[in-house]
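User: Can you help me understand a structure? I only have the sequence.
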Amino acid sequence: METNSKKNSSFIVIGVGVLFIGIILIQFFSRSDQTLHARTLEMQRSQKDSQFKHAADSPIPKEERDAFVKLDYFPTNEAYLVEATFTPDPQADTLHLMTTTGEDRKMIRAGTLSFTLQERPQQLAAYRYLDPAITTLFVPFKDLTSGRATYGGGRYLDLEIVAEGPYQLDFNRAYNPYCVYNEGYVCPLPPLENKLMVEIAAGEKKEYVKRK
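Assistant: Let's start by predicting it. Here is the structure, written out as tokens:
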């Protein structure tokens, strides 16, 4: 009886130990996923900074590149990574989006993205380019930071088109149109239906960091 009791006690100790290690591993990998998201963004942002600083096709004017240090961002916040359902438009009409120069830009209204942000239902229209070789949805938007912490003309998201299933909207990836940095570019403006009545404190800010 004593031997069996010792064995049972050992099994209990081992079981508790395995359970404890399992909980630690779950917590670790959960934190690792979040860290991976932040690290991936950091790496991509660093690459973009280098492109803006050195690439021949940089939107930063040549005379300003010496002073350019990096783009400025809100801190990464996974509350702005949300799942959206996509409802295709029954008729994918070609529309004219207004641009920063007053010209029209033809795009196809592909459908509507529906999601919840800050505990409120939200919607954004998504567009396709006329060029079939471009396999992304274009999502221009404004929010309550527009004209304050972010560019008044709105920001953009690009989404790879998927055959089925939800889309991942990551507002941490919201970026400025090139006309923010160079008036030589013509940039589409978000339509009225893509004005979100919440603050999107994520993604690129209005000004970039300059060398003093």
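Now, to help you interpret it: The chain has two domains: 1-58, 71-210. The longest strand covers residues 104-117. Let me know which part you'd like to focus on.
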